[in-house]
Amino acid sequence: xxxxxxxxxxxxxxxxxxxxxxxxxxxxxxxxxxxxxxxxxxxxxxxxxxxxxxxxxxxxxxxxxxxxxxxxxxxxxxxxxxxxxxxxxxxxxxxxxxxxxxxxxxxxxxxxxxxxxxxxxxxxxxxxxxxxxxxxxxxxxxxxxxxxxxxxxxxxxxxxxxxxxxxxxxxxxxxxxxxxxxxxxxxxxxxxxxxxxxxxxxxxxxxxxxxxxxxxxxxxxxxxxxxxxxxxxxxxxxxxxxxxxxxxxxxxxxxxxxxxxxxxxxxxxxxxxxxx
Length: 276
Known about the structure:
Elements: E1 2-5, H1 11-15, E2 25-27, H2 37-47, E3 52-55, H3 69-82, E4 86-90, E5 93-96, E6 99-105, H4 111-128, E7 133-135, H5 149-160, E8 163-167, H6 168-178, H7 182-188, E9 194-199, E10 202-206, E11 209-212, H8 220-232, E12 239-241, H9 250-275
Parallel strand pairs: 1-2, 1-12, 2-3, 3-4, 4-7, 7-8, 8-9, 9-12
Antiparallel strand pairs: 5-6, 10-11
């Protein structure tokens, strides 16, 4: 399965043509909860054709503020209404002192943060009565780390019992900006927890800095890292192509979907051959 983010920018064109043919769609609940009229009609039309994966933006799992349980109950209703297959969120925080920061900020890689985040993930899973998938996010400076990024992620997965949304582009971005080997990172990751993969493009703005934008095509080194990741996994997992702005022709998006699907197919065929 290779899906696409369901964006209002191209929703109508997508639904009224056969150019773009994903296996599923993904939507941010914050953009659709409580929406009616024309846009609700388009969403319902999309759900008649495609399974839905839900990817949140504002849960703020790492925030010092209490969890917003009213918001979580709305999420639960939305998941039920849309029969969503997956609910994922970011391993980050987005608000503090009840102020929404409108960004996905890094959580300090500390032992206290592992405990804090893991407890909150468990609370979310208990309320929703399902596992959630937590995404590795891009970050541009570490905050008072007591452990490595890899150690932090693995510790949260182990303690919380959550699944992992592996954003391969984010791993590439972080490895470039923080000077580590992305292949060794994948080697050390708890890949048995991976239930979902994101793929996207980024923007290089200096010789020593790239920014995760979701506004460019996937580059060859990220495809290569994805191929390596698929070879490491012991199971098939759904993959999403993210494109949030600077939307190209739908045929170009479909070509990226085909390329991702072919890499998956080759890796799974090889794995089947090795175990035969």
